[in-house]
Amino acid sequence: MTSLPPALQELAAALGRLPGIGRKTATRLAFFILNAPREEGEILARAIMKVKAEVKRCSRCFNFTESDPCHICSDERRNHKLICLVEDSQTILLIEKTNEYRGLYHVLGGVISPLDGIGPEALRIKELLGRLEGVEEVILALTPSTEGEATSIYLAKLLKPQGIRITRLARGIPLGSSLEFVDELTLGKALQSRSEMN
Ligand SMILES: [Zn+2]
């Protein structure tokens, strides 16, 4: 087997580090980029550089944004007494699509997972505690996995003594499924009929 030119190998290796991209797909994509007109490659490279340079995290909710605070945090028409806790920015996108939620968000940055060496201190819990003044309810919208459950329980214990109502998405979202794969209608309903955590 003849080996690929080093630059092509390098591109394939970089693409192979993307989630869901195996070695074969990475090689196929690398060849596609190589075969495409020069401008196509430049558009892709520029888009990557631009997103890394211009998109930051909101200093309040840690959602990705080009302005700080983000358009959600700075929207006075939204309910600032309500915070929905999510693992990542993608979940915000999903919840916004349901049109069922008018509060604020807080991006936790993951869930507690001892097996992966992720403890509470690795998440944005301190930052959450720092913005609870005037907040009446925190909705826990974490992945319904074992780790998501454990994290929800940990947070409920931490937040309840502060006199804040802690709710979670209604059951109906299949256990273990990523919120990413839940349709808008189901997610919207789960938000509407959220339940109090004891
Ligand atoms: Zn924000």
Give an overview in words.
The protein has 198 residues and is of the alpha/beta class. It folds into two domains: 6-54, Orthogonal Bundle (Helicase, Ruva Protein, domain 3); 75-196, 3-Layer(aba) Sandwich (Dna Topoisomerase Vi A Subunit, Chain: A, domain 2). It is 40% helix and 14% strand. It is built from seven helices and seven strands, in the order αααβββαβαβαβαβ. It has helices at residues 6-16, 23-35, 38-54, 89-98, 125-129, 146-159, 184-192; strands at residues 56-57, 64-65, 79-86, 103-107, 137-140, 165-168, 195-196. The strands form two sheets. It has a five-stranded mixed sheet with strand order 4-3-5-6-7. Helix 4 crosses helix 7. The chain is elongated. The chain starts with 5 loop residues before the first helix and ends with a strand. The mean pLDDT is 91. Bound molecules: zinc ion.
The counted number of beta strands is 7
Just name the CATH architecture of the largest domain.
Answer: 3-Layer(aba) Sandwich
List the ligand species. zinc ion
Spatial sequence of strands, sheet with the most strands: 4-3-5-6-7
Name the beta content range: 5-15%
Number of domains: 2
